[in-house]
Task: structure prediction
Amino acid sequence: MNIQIQNKINHPASKKVTVFSTLRDACSEDWAAYINHKFVQQLGDGSLPKKCFQHYLIQLYLFSKHYSRAYALAVFKSEHLDDLREAASHVDLQLNYEMALHVDYCAQWGIDMDQLDSWQESDANRLYTRYVLDQGMTGDLLDLLIALTPCSLGYAEIGSELLSDPATKITGNPYRAWIELHGGHEFQEGAQTMSQFVDRVAERRGISINDSTNKRWRSLKENFRTATQMESRFWEMGLHPPTL
Amino acid sequence: MNIQIQNKINHPASKKVTVFSTLRDACSEDWAAYINHKFVQQLGDGSLPKKCFQHYLIQLYLFSKHYSRAYALAVFKSEHLDDLREAASHVDLQLNYEMALHVDYCAQWGIDMDQLDSWQESDANRLYTRYVLDQGMTGDLLDLLIALTPCSLGYAEIGSELLSDPATKITGNPYRAWIELHGGHEFQEGAQTMSQFVDRVAERRGISINDSTNKRWRSLKENFRTATQMESRFWEMGLHPPTL
Amino acid sequence: MNIQIQNKINHPASKKVTVFSTLRDACSEDWAAYINHKFVQQLGDGSLPKKCFQHYLIQLYLFSKHYSRAYALAVFKSEHLDDLREAASHVDLQLNYEMALHVDYCAQWGIDMDQLDSWQESDANRLYTRYVLDQGMTGDLLDLLIALTPCSLGYAEIGSELLSDPATKITGNPYRAWIELHGGHEFQEGAQTMSQFVDRVAERRGISINDSTNKRWRSLKENFRTATQMESRFWEMGLHPPTL
Amino acid sequence: MNIQIQNKINHPASKKVTVFSTLRDACSEDWAAYINHKFVQQLGDGSLPKKCFQHYLIQLYLFSKHYSRAYALAVFKSEHLDDLREAASHVDLQLNYEMALHVDYCAQWGIDMDQLDSWQESDANRLYTRYVLDQGMTGDLLDLLIALTPCSLGYAEIGSELLSDPATKITGNPYRAWIELHGGHEFQEGAQTMSQFVDRVAERRGISINDSTNKRWRSLKENFRTATQMESRFWEMGLHPPTL
Result:
């Protein structure tokens, strides 16, 4: 079995056409720049400087507050019980479970909570979260979710790609835990659930993957592209930690 | 020239298919109940008790604060310059021009500002404006505008219908000014501009009047129907002034 | 030990001065009308007609969707991690735990999910939730939380009062489970946590219970009073089920 | 008469203690860095490179869309008629009057509308407007207005300072129109009205300039400081036009 085929099997998002896969294909260059960013490559081969990863971890912590606010906004904007519940579980999971894990993980990398709370959001960080929140307030639930997909579904794709890529170093890679978390079964399942959430909301809002003539695709693509570019800039920020 | 033909000429909204006319036709029973409400009929033949009209005027004043907030929300939710400008002109017009006219008109009916500020919003009033505002926050610009159309476009249709209806009493009707305002050229033009605004936003949001299969029509109709029913309840409230 | 003293012991909210207790005392008549409403009395002595309670349960289910949206808005509007987490736990608890319990409880009262989803929000219901959501959007986190307290803290007080009132019938009372739930330890603790949440946010927003001269107390009281009156109307609605 | 005294006379904002002057004094270093930015100095002596000013003008045009949305949000968040009207007049003024003037002014500097609409918001631009909008959604009307003051009141102070500064070159300065607009009577009056608007809202929200112990001052100062720093970065951006 060659690596191409194995990749398809390991990569759930590529299995069928979804709103996410449609947007990803429509913005393939921006997507590739994000998914295969130098930061990701250096995570994969373990060459990423420690201070870059630490900077990334701190910014991700600051990011998660506003990311949670965005999912809370998704609850607020939900009209159907399944959407309310789906979004609500994200909000609680992030704030009352994953954030604690993240703080623990930061501790393993020598970052303590005092440091976490004393750092400022970087521009790349602030630009992305406030963009997502503004999309959510300006538009509807679909606009909000699309702005979130490059993060929630992109990380799953990156994890999956890294795990299935023979160039990835696992043994002795200081970033092994990061790779195995995001490539792992639980994270992949979460991504599929999110993708289905997006598809369900899209359908109710009149967007069908079988109808490419709908004029709203234009703004959805623009939204997806902008959010994807902002994710790339988040990686870029990671490569440039502030000198202390 | 028979009255049917005259009606068509005087009634711009009926001339062509718009998002508004599509929704109106889809909710024709609810629409008819609103447009031909007993309150409207009594405006037309001049038989409406004075205290009912006074109650209506007071509630309309209280209504206009939140109605203006809804148009302000439309500015906030606009992404294109033409939409921003269109909505902005409504906000200023209502708060800094029409409200003063309304206060003057109330004075002619023996209602002074002290009274205006001491009255409470009636349930029917509060239910409608808060519904519109919640639609606007939950959904996108189109959802917000659709919730507003039964008011902005319905009043124009009522005015036009009353003016062209031979049963309407003009001379000696104490409500003549109301009828002539809402049936008049300026108000009809404003309604056409609003209808075009809705059509433009709908198109950008992927809703075409030529594609009835779009699943979002369902929620748009539900929204339009709810707002229309709330307008009927506003008339109903007018018929039942509080006893003092 | 007389019942007065026992009442004080059982009634945690009365133990010390809080923002909630200050507002409750400032609106004591409206508060008493809500807490001692005929609906509550009939819960206590078991005389409430079954169809009234069923109507109430159905409306409470419809209420809980928008109540959860209000807590989601509290997450969105939180700037501090403790507030984010506190509000987030409410959102998930309500949507992914309590709602299921409520549906089970409804089933015990002969109401199935099909019925739940086919009922319309009553006016009293819709007026209250949309009021809370509009307060939250118009004001800050404190305005939002104050509009929620008559529900979250009032139900705890009602449960506690009923449990400690010798006139309350426990054995054989069909509403025993309701009384024991809301008067029980877990619910009382939840109310105390909510009260502390309100106090913490109030302090950050410049409201101190030791400074009664702050001009913002006026709008906070108005807000609390309106929300309390809307809770009374919710009970009133319960006493008047629609005839089918 | 020395220049110090003349300055006081020409500078209305300094005449009495306001919420704005209190915040400005509390953030005096950040404020000075903004008011006396190199970009401002080069406007004053006419040495600013043309391409810097053109870049600034284009970004200001893009800025004004979201700045208008922020004032629309102020309408939405207003509870009192005077606030509704004050904010509404800003929205309409900006979108339907000042924007046209700005487009004309851009034309004089060789920038046409096609260029205006093809440019992207710079980071410094986007960071500021989205910050203001997020403050407005997270907080109350006062939080929103405070985030706007460094722009609306700062530009008036800069204009006034430049006009009264003997180092300013008027005759032959290509930026003379800019200086005379912002230092002129109409703009100064507009700033005073805005400052009074802030004071009125602050008072209703429980903030008194005579009570420095109110804990909310802390977040108001933080807000003001952040917005002021973002204004400095807007100038900084102006100094670094993209190479084409």
About this structure: Chain A touches chain D at residues 123, 126-127, 130-131, 133-134, 137 (CB under 8 Å). The radius of gyration of chain A is 18 Å. Chain A has one domain: 30-239. DSSP finds twelve helices and no strands in chain A.
